[in-house]
Design a protein that fits this description.
heterodimer, A: alpha+beta, Serine Threonine Protein Phosphatase 5, Tetratricopeptide repeat, SH3 type barrels, 3 domains, five-stranded antiparallel beta sheet, two-stranded antiparallel ribbon, 58% helix, globular, B: 629 residues, alpha+beta, Immunoglobulin-like, 4 domains, 31 strands, rod-shaped
C-alpha cells in the first residue's frame, strides 16, 4: 500500500510533458530566425515543434507574431487566439491580438456582457484548464484535512469550527471542480473560429441558395453554435447568427 | 506640323479646282438645247471599310424633281450637294455650250460587302430619266482606290495610276523586346514613303494600356525627314511619333497599331489629250494638274512586349518600382540653428529611368521635428535617342521645436539597376543638427511649464516574441480527464476514510480498556488492601506499605485512566478536581499518601501506625467511591 502510494506520488509530481532537448534547440532556432526577419522559416520551425506533439502559449504567440510580420493577419489572429486559450491572462498576447484585430476589415461591435458574466469570465480566465484542475486537487486535500480534524476531535468547540471551515472548503472545491470541467470542455471543444476567406457571405440556412444575410471578411472571429454537413452555424460578436461553409473558417 | 509637311511634300491641288471654276464662270455664254439628255451615275465602286467616298449623279440639262437612292448599308455623310457647271467651247470656230448639273453624295462604308446603289431619278422637260444601278464593293483592307477629283466633269478616261503597297507604309519599332517591369522602352513610329505626301491625320493613337509613357519628340523634331535605301529603293523616312514607355505590369503586353490617314500625291503625266488649246496647256502645268491625290489609311504593325517581372530574390522591402540608373544627393541649408527656425533638406535623385514615378522617399526625421509635405520638382530631359532622364528633387521643410543635438539618418533609396541587373541601394550622408534654444522658445509654446508634453507614440507594432525558456506541454494534454486527476481525487479520499476508520477503532479499543480498569479499580484496591491486612498480621511493614501505596496509586490510575508514568501528587490533584471530587477529600487522599510515605521510615510503634494507615486508606477509597457516585 505504502509503496504504491509513493510511486503514485512520484508519478504525480513529474511533469507529464517535459520538453525534449531537441525541442529546446528548435525554440531557440526559431527565435533567431524571427530576429533575423526570416519569418517564414520561423513559422516552419514552430510548426515542427507542434508536429512533435508539443505546444505552449508562447509557441503560438511567437508563431502569430511571425504571421503578423508577414502581414498574414487572419493566421496571426488564429494563433493569438490559440495562445490566449492556453494563457488567457497574458498581457502581451492580449495586446498583440488587439493590434492584429485593428488591421482587419470588419469592425464588429461587441454586445456588452452583463456584469455577472464579465466577472465570471474574469475569474474563469485567471488560470488555464490544467491549473484549474491542480487547484481543485489542492482544495480537495485541504477540505479532507479539515474534515479529518472535525471527525477526530472530541471537543465540541473544535468540531464546530472545523465543520464550518470544512463545509466552506467543500463548496469552494466543488466550484473549482465545475470551473475545471468547464475550462476543460472549452479547451477540447472548438467553439470559435477565424474566417479565412477574404470576403464571405453569411447565409440564412446551410444552403448556397438561401438568402444572403451579411458579409464578413477574413480575420473576423465567429462563435460556432451548430454544424450541419459542411456548414457551421455561427454567431458573431454583435449577436448576428447565420451559416457559413466550413471551408471558409479555421477552428481555434 | 502637318502644314509644314505638306509644304515639304506637295502642291496644293485644291487651287486647281478653284481656278477651273473661276475660268468657267467667266466665259458663260448662251445656251443651246441641242444636246441629248444624259443622266449618269459615277463614283468609286471599290472602297475600304471606314473610307470616305463619293457618288455623283450628273445630268446635262436642267432637271427637276431629283430623287436620289437610299444607299442602304452605307452612311451618308452629306448630300445631295448640287452644283451646276456651264462650259463654253469653241471648236473650229463653232461655238458650243454645254452644261451639267451634278448631285453629289459623300458616303462612308461601315461594313464589308457589296452594296447596290439604286438608280436615281430626275425629270427633264416632263420626261423621267434614270441612271444605271451601281454596285459598291466594300473590302476590309484599305484598297488603293482613287479618290479626290477623280470623275471629271468631262467624263474623260483616267490613267489608273495605283499606289503600290510598298510605296507608302508605317512601321512601329521598339528598341528592346524583353524589358524588365518598369524599364524604359523606346517606341518609334516611322513613315516610309516614295511619293510625296500632302496631309497626315492621325486617326487612332495606340492606347498604351499597362504603360506609363512620355513623348520624346517635340513638334519641331517630328517629321524630320531623311532618306534611306531599302532593297535598292530610296525611301523618304520621317519619325512621326516617338515615346518612352515604361511597362507597369509584367507578362505579355500589346500595343495596338497606330492608324493614320494620309493623302499621297501621284504625278500623272498626260492626263488630258493634248491639244493646242490654251486651256489645256494651262492644265498641263504641274502646279495645277500634274498630280492626283490618293487617300490612304495606314496602319502600323502591333507590337507585343514580353515584360519580365523584377527578380524576387533580394528584393528590398521598401522597393517602390524604380528601375534605371540613379544617383542620390542630399543637401541641407543649415546645420546649426535655433528652435523654430526652418531648415530645408533637399534630396535630389538624378538618373535615367522612370524617375517621375518616385512619389515617396523613405525619410526618417527626428520625431520632435515638424515636417511638412515635400515640394517635388522635376527636371526631366527627354532625348529622342536615350529616352527619359533628369532629376527629381524632394524638398522637405523641417522645423525643430525643441533644442538638442539631432541626427537625420541617411536616406536609403532602393532601385533596380539595369546595368548590373540587381537591386541597388543608394545612401545619402547623415546630417547632424545642433538646435539651440531660440528667443521665442520659452514664450509662445506650450512645451514648458504646467502643460508638459505627453508621450507621443510614433508607431504601433506588435510586441516582441517570447524569448527564453518556456515549458512545452504535450498538446491536447488535459489534466482534467486523465486517470491521474481521478487518482488525485480518489486516493486522498480513500486514505482519509481509512484513516478515520482506523483512528476510531483504535480509540474505541482504548476506551474499552480504561472502562474495564475503571470498573475494576475498587476491586483491585480492595484486593491490595486485603494483602496489606495480611502483611499487617505478619508485621511485615515493608510489604504492607508497598501494598497500601499500590492500592492507592493503582486505584487512581485505573479509576481516572491516568497512565502510571504520569502519576504524581499534582496530577492527582488536577484529575480529581476535574472529576468534581471535593477538595477536602482530595486533601485527605494526599494526606493518606503522605502518611503512608512517612510512616514507612518514621520511628515509633510500627504496628499502631500500620493499623491507622490501613484504616485511613480504606476510608479514603470508600469516600472517593461514594463521592464519584
Amino acid at each position: 500500500m505504502k509503496r504504491f502510494l509513493i510511486i503514485l506520488f512520484i508519478f504525480g509530481l513529474s511533469k507529464a510533458g517535459f520538453s525534449l532537448t531537441s525541442n529546446d534547440s528548435l525554440v531557440s532556432m526559431a527565435m533567431n530566425q524571427y530576429n533575423e526577419g526570416a519569418y517564414n522559416d520561423a513559422i516552419s520551425t514552430y510548426d515542427q515543434i507542434i508536429a512533435n506533439g508539443y505546444e505552449s502559449s508562447e509557441i503560438y504567440y511567437n508563431k502569430a507574431n511571425a504571421y503578423f510580420k508577414l502581414n498574414d493577419i487572419p493566421s496571426a489572429i488564429l494563433f493569438y487566439e490559440k495562445a490566449r486559450k492556453l494563457n488567457p491572462k497574458d498581457e502581451d498576447i492580449l495586446y498583440n491580438l488587439n493590434v492584429a484585430n485593428s488591421r482587419i476589415v470588419d469592425n464588429i461591435e461587441q454586445v456588452p456582457d452583463i456584469f455577472l458574466k464579465v466577472w465570471w469570465n474574469n475569474f474563469y480566465n485567471m488560470f488555464s484548464a490544467n491549473d484549474w484542475a491542480k487547484i481543485t486537487i489542492g482544495l480537495f486535500m485541504i477540505t479532507l484535512f479539515f474534515a479529518a480534524i472535525y471527525f477526530l476531535s472530541n471537543r465540541r468547540f473544535t468540531k464546530k469550527i472545523f465543520f464550518t471551515i470544512g463545509s466552506l472548503f467543500l463548496i469552494v472545491t466543488i466550484f473549482s471542480f465545475v470551473l475545471s470541467y468547464q475550462k476543460f470542455y472549452y479547451s477540447i471543444e472548438h467553439k470559435e473560429a477565424i474566417v479565412f476567406q477574404p470576403t464571405i457571405t453569411v447565409k440564412s440556412s446551410p444552403n448556397n441558395n438561401s438568402v444572403d444575410l451579411f458579409v464578413i471578411h477574413e480575420g473576423s472571429k465567429v462563435y460556432i453554435t451548430d454544424e450541419l454537413d459542411n456548414w457551421y452555424e455561427i454567431r458573431i460578436a454583435n449577436g448576428s447568427i447565420g451559416w457559413l461553409p466550413k471551408s471558409a473558417t479555421q477552428l481555434i | 506640323m502637318v502644314d509644314q509637311f505638306i509644304r515639304n511634300f506637295a502642291f496644293l491641288t485644291d487651287t486647281m479646282k478653284k481656278g477651273l471654276t473661276l475660268i468657267l464662270s467667266l466665259i458663260i455664254l448662251g445656251f443651246t438645247a441641242e444636246a441629248q439628255v444624259t443622266f449618269e451615275a459615277s463614283g468609286q465602286t471599290n472602297v475600304a471599310v471606314g473610307e470616305q467616298f463619293m457618288i455623283r449623279f450628273t445630268v446635262n440639262q436642267q432637271g427637276t424633281n431629283f430623287i436620289g437612292p437610299d444607299f442602304k448599308g452605307l452612311n451618308i455623310l452629306s448630300g445631295p450637294n448640287i452644283s451646276t457647271n456651264t462650259s463654253y467651247s469653241n471648236i473650229n470656230g463653232k461655238m458650243s455650250q454645254s452644261m451639267s448639273v451634278s448631285y453629289t453624295y459623300y458616303l462612308r462604308a461601315v461594313k464589308e460587302g457589296d452594296f447596290k446603289v439604286a438608280p436615281a431619278k430626275i425629270t427633264v422637260d416632263n420626261e423621267e430619266y434614270q441612271t444605271k444601278e451601281l454596285t459598291v464593293h466594300v473590302s476590309k483592307e484599305p484598297a488603293n482606290t482613287n479618290t479626290g477629283n477623280a470623275p471629271d466633269a468631262s467624263g474623260q478616261d483616267q490613267n489608273q495610276t495605283q499606289l503600290k503597297e510598298n510605296d507608302l507604309f508605317l512601321r512601329a519599332s521598339i528598341d528592346k523586346q524583353n524589358p524588365y517591369l518598369g524599364e524604359q522602352v523606346i517606341l518609334t513610329y516611322k513613315i516610309y514613303t516614295k511619293v510625296p505626301i500632302a496631309q497626315i491625320v492621325i486617326n487612332k493613337l495606340s492606347n498604351f494600356q499597362g504603360f506609363w509613357m512620355k513623348n520624346l519628340l517635340t513638334d519641331q523634331e517630328a517629321l524630320k525627314q531623311q532618306s534611306e535605301i531599302i532593297d535598292g529603293e530610296e525611301y523618304v523616312i520621317a519619325e512621326l511619333r516617338k515615346f518612352a514607355i515604361f511597362p507597369q505590369k509584367s507578362g505579355k503586353l500589346t500595343i495596338d497599331p497606330l492608324e493614320l490617314e494620309c493623302v499621297a500625291q501621284i504625278r500623272q503625266a498626260n492626263q488630258r489629250r493634248s491639244s493646242n488649246s490654251f486651256l489645256d496647256s494651262f492644265f498641263d502645268d504641274p502646279f495645277f494638274g500634274g498630280t492626283r491625290n490618293i487617300q490612304k489609311i495606314l496602319k502600323s504593325n502591333a507590337i507585343t512586349l514580353d515584360v519580365k517581372p523584377l527578380p524576387e530574390v533580394n528584393k528590398p522591402l521598401d522597393f517602390s518600382g524604380t528601375v534605371g540608373d540613379f544617383q542620390i544627393k542630399g543637401s541641407i541649408n543649415a546645420t546649426e540653428l535655433k528652435t523654430n527656425d526652418a531648415i530645408t533638406l533637399r534630396y535630389q535623385i538624378t538618373g535615367s529611368g522612370n524617375i517621375e514615378l518616385i512619389d515617396k522617399l523613405n525619410t526618417k526625421f527626428p520625431s520632435d521635428f515638424e515636417v511638412y509635405e515635400p515640394k517635388i520638382t522635376n527636371n526631366i530631359i527627354t532625348n529622342s535617342a536615350s529616352g527619359v532622364s533628369g532629376s527629381r528633387t524632394f524638398e522637405y521643410l523641417l522645423i525643430p521645436r525643441n533644442p538638442g543635438d539631432f541626427e537625420i539618418p541617411p536616406l536609403t533609396f532602393n532601385y533596380f539597376n539595369l546595368k548590373s541587373n540587381s537591386y541597388q541601394q543608394l545612401k545619402t550622408q547623415p546630417f547632424n543638427l545642433k538646435v539651440e534654444k531660440g528667443a521665442d522658445y520659452q514664450s509662445g509654446l506650450v512645451y514648458s511649464g504646467a502643460n508638459r508634453e505627453a508621450i507621443q507614440y510614433i508607431g504601433t507594432d506588435i510586441r516582441h516574441i517570447k524569448t527564453g525558456n518556456f515549458a512545452l506541454v504535450k498538446s491536447n494534454y488535459f489534466l482534467f480527464n486523465t486517470t491521474k486527476f481521478i487518482m488525485w481525487m480518489v486516493i486522498p479520499f480513500a486514505l482519509f476514510i481509512a484513516f478515520i476508520l482506523i483512528w476510531k477503532k483504535q480509540a474505541k479499543k482504548l476506551n474499552n480498556q480504561s472502562l474495564m480498569r475503571h470498573k475494576r479499580a475498587t476491586k483491585v484496591a480492595r484486593k491490595s488492601l486485603k494483602n496489606a491486612q495480611a502483611y499487617l498480621g505478619t508485621k511485615d511493614s515493608a510489604s504492607f506499605y508497598n501494598e497500601i501505596s499500590q492500592a492507592l496509586w493503582g486505584y487512581l490510575s485505573d479509576k481516572f485512566n491516568i497512565p502510571k508514568a504520569e502519576l504524581s501528587k499534582e496530577t492527582v490533584n488536577l484529575k480529581l478536581l476535574d472529576k468534581k471530587v471535593k477538595e477536602k477529600t482530595i486533601i485527605q487522599f494526599i494526606e493518606t499518601l503522605n502518611h503512608c510515605d512517612y510512616a514507612r521510615f518514621a520511628p515509633g510503634d510500627p504496628e499502631s501506625t500500620m493499623d491507622t494507615i490501613y484504616n485511613e486508606a480504606l476510608e479514603i477509597i470508600t469516600k472517593i467511591e461514594r463521592e464519584l457516585k
